[in-house]
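pinging the channel bc i need a second pair of eyes. not urgent but kinda urgent?? the chain im working w is below, pasted from the shared doc
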Amino acid sequence: MKFGIVIFPGSTSDYDTQHVLKNVLKQTVVELWHKEPALPDFDNNDCILLTGGFWHHNLSPEELTRQSPIMTAIAEFAASGGYVWGIGDGFKVLCETGLLPGTLLENNHQRFVCKNVFLSPMTRRTAITSKVLDLEIPLKIPVAHASGRYDADAAILDELEENDQVLFKYCTETGAITAEANPNGSSRNIAGICNAGRNVFGIMPHPERASEEQLGNIDGRILFESIVETVQMTEAV
């Protein structure tokens, strides 16, 4: 498989993510400039990544699509079954453009939060979570955002839970899902979700910042390993 990392003016985690995929996991990575109108040579076993940053703030979904034609190509790619993964503000964009339900609002304490948080994996039924429940403890992965509070109406939240579309919830170090463990006030402690087709993922924490021994934390690496392993098994069938 290969990973396409979209480069926007103001994106801040694109090269971090590229480093982990290319140099740590030895995967093929393609840089995609946001003005490109198409995704050449990508198929449904590949993954497009929207990384963190402040590149889209104050843009409506319509303006974002107009200024960044690649968003239309990404929507078409997702509709065809290709993997699309938004991290941090990339998650926010997937919600704003309708690829994922709900929205990301300003943190309830109205402060930027940058720290390690603990995540309770809620499902292994997606490509990025297929391996996470092999661990016996919650994942420790950093967040860095001012608008990371996931919200949706009760009907959508109920549907996400019933359909096993919640990927992670914020929890304590021992795995308890509590209000105190929630760093931003997200509804039902939700830290990540997927679409009904289980090929579009959005998470607020940054696994690319917890994927190397030199950083003292490799909990985030398992998300990248999961999607690589899932695709390898699919291709082997």
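so Residues 221-236 form the longest helix (16 residues). and The longest strand covers residues 113-121. — does that match what u expected or am i reading it wrong
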